[in-house]
TrEMBL record:
Keyword DNA-binding appears in the UniProt entry: yes
Residue ranges of coiled coil: 27-54
Pfam families named among the record's database cross-references: Phage_int_SAM_1, Phage_integrase
Record's keyword annotation contains Calcium: no
One GO MF term: DNA binding
Annotated ranges, domain Tyr recombinase: 121-317
Region (Disordered), start-end ranges: 110-129
Domain Core-binding (CB) as annotated: residue spans: 11-100
Protein name: Integrase
A GO biological process held by the record: DNA integration
Protein's organism: Actinopolyspora mortivallis
Length: 335
């Protein structure tokens, strides 16, 4: 056995976890995603330590068995939502695939670890034909009550989500330099899920909204904006975080009077779904939608087209003329 192999065999679970996170970082994974992976690995490792009676930093890979993993995930799931458990399961599944490739594990035990049933993946756009426009007009008018109002920033965030379909993590990872290109041909360079980069074209109207926001930001804080600065910031000039984004969208929906038009479990993601659904309604195919949204599989994008077709059929059925035809048909059958 080589010296390198011998030293690898002596690595603890925590040390292998650190190597895996370095591997993900080398793939240019978004910082928010890295934090989520680290949190999932550490949280379940803490439960493993309780199950095995060992200190977390002393746990070896040989002590991580199918039995101990099932027990650890059962403890972890007791106080977490189904979506959190599913995400942690996926994190550990990826971790063990990495260990198998590295030769540190002879197999992946995760398939025998139970996980919650897959959640409904049906797109959940904002309900109501004019809801997105109502939301944007409300933001532009400064309808959201805030201690330090900043309508230009609120409008820019909402417009970017609705007109590009970015994920929350992608929006929060944007820097000033991500807004690139000549006037009228601007694009947003996005670091997507799994480190997959893409370039999303933006319309001149959104370009104008973003420029107005950046001008207001320079006036507000009295300083230049280097390209490395986060594109979207809070009222203190610090990078906007996930909680702040959730609150901004939630309060903006409330101020616009459309909180009841967000389906359960959607919120910020509803704006992404709205963008994709409107693309499908306007005739975009699955490949085009996949490219703009950063989907790894076209099947994910196809769901927007399928839902749009179903909604169109429901609309046709709701037509009053069709209801009359239905009555006439029933009457004829009775005769």
């Amino acid at each position: 056995m080589s010296t390198e192999s011998a030293s690898d065999a002596d690595l603890t679970l925590a040390q292998w976890s650190a190597r895996y996170l370095e591997h993900l970082q080398a793939r240019k994974m978004a910082e928010n995603s890295l934090r989520a992976y680290r949190r999932d690995l550490e949280s379940v490792a803490a439960e493993l330590a309780e199950v095995t009676g060992r200190r977390r930093d002393e746990l070896s890979l040989s002590e991580v068995t199918s039995h101990s993993l099932r027990s650890a995930f059962a403890r972890y799931a007791a106080t977490r939502s189904a979506s959190s458990v599913t995400r942690a399961w996926s994190s550990w599944n990826g971790f063990f695939r990495f260990l198998v490739v590295e030769g540190a594990s002879s197999g992946n035990p995760m398939p025998v670890v139970p996980k919650p049933r897959t959640a409904d993946t049906t797109p959940k756009p904002l309900e109501g034909e004019q809801t997105p426009e109502r939301l944007l007009r409300s933001a532009a008018q400064g309808a959201r009550k805030a201690r330090d109002p900043w309508p230009e920033r609120d409008l820019a965030v909402l417009a970017t989500l609705l007109c590009t379909g970015l994920r929350s993590s992608e929006l929060l990872d944007l820097t000033v330099s991500c807004l690139a290109g000549r006037h009228g041909e601007r694009r947003l360079h996005v670091r997507g899920k799994g480190g997959a980069n893409r370039s999303v074209p933006i319309d001149e109207s959104l370009e104008g909204i973003l420029e107005d926001y950046l001008d207001s930001r320079r006036r507000r804080f009295g300083r230049r904006l280097p390209g490395t600065e986060p594109l979207f910031v809070n009222h203190r000039g610090e990078a906007l975080r996930r909680g702040g984004l959730q609150y901004l969208v939630q309060q903006s929906l409330k101020a616009a009077g459309v909180s009841d038009r967000v389906r359960r479990g959607a919120m910020v993601h509803a704006l992404r779904h709205t963008f994709a659904t409107r693309l499908a309604e306007d005739g975009a195919n699955a490949a085009e939608i996949a490219k703009l949204l950063g989907h790894a599989s076209i099947s994910s994008s196809q769901s927007y087209i399928d839902v749009t077709a179903r909604e169109q059929r429901l609309s046709v059925r709701a037509n009053r003329t069709n209801r009359v035809l239905g009555e006439l048909t029933s009457r004829r059958q009775d005769e």
